[in-house]
């Protein structure tokens, strides 16, 4: 069972890190190129695409939405760890592991709730044919990308919850996937 779960998580992380992560970076790069083109068109040529500003904004945001899950998987998301660090220094390792497990479970609940309530929002946007300010781009594809990002984050939290439960039990799983990023700021 552990071997199958480990392989599944490795494949998932490959897709997340190498496909979605680099895909997000590519979309972000394309948005920057479009923004530069819009600046040149506006200030040198005196014309703009009606949809250019909306496209830059929404594609940038979409890339960030997808990258949420990559950040979650690497556990390099924004976290306030002052209390956990203080407890760890004082030797309360088990307490730190339990608190991390609680945070992961809370994250899973939050992401799952957003996904659950997100589907009706997308359906409504599709039915109403809501569009951006330029009236060219539909809103629902960007909402769907947000929902995909949160769904991937929830799946990531499932794997991390298993990892955290095993850590509380004194077992190590997914040794190749660090339980903490360890960013020093």
Structure report:
It contains 5 helices and no strands. It has 185 residues and is an all-alpha fold. It has one domain (2-168). It is elongated. The relative contact order is 0.14.
On the 0-100 scale, what is the average pLDDT?
89
Biggest sheet features = none
Number of domains: 1
- Please give the oligomerization state of what you see: single chain
In percent terms, what proportion of residues is strand? under 5%
Radius of gyration: 20 Å
Fraction of residues in H or I helices: over 70%
The assigned structural class equals mainly alpha
Report low-confidence residues grouped into runs of 5 or more: none
Q: What letter string, H or E per element, gives the SSE order?
A: HHHHH
Number of DSSP helical runs:
5
Summarize the model shown.
With 185 residues, this protein is mostly helical. The protein has one domain (2-168). It contains five helices and no strands.
Task: Summarize the topology.
Layout lengths: L1 H44 L6 H22 L8 H8 L3 H36 L11 H29 L17
Helix pairs in contact: 1-2, 2-5, 3-4, 4-5
Key terms:
single chain, 185 residues, mainly alpha, 5 helices, 0% strand
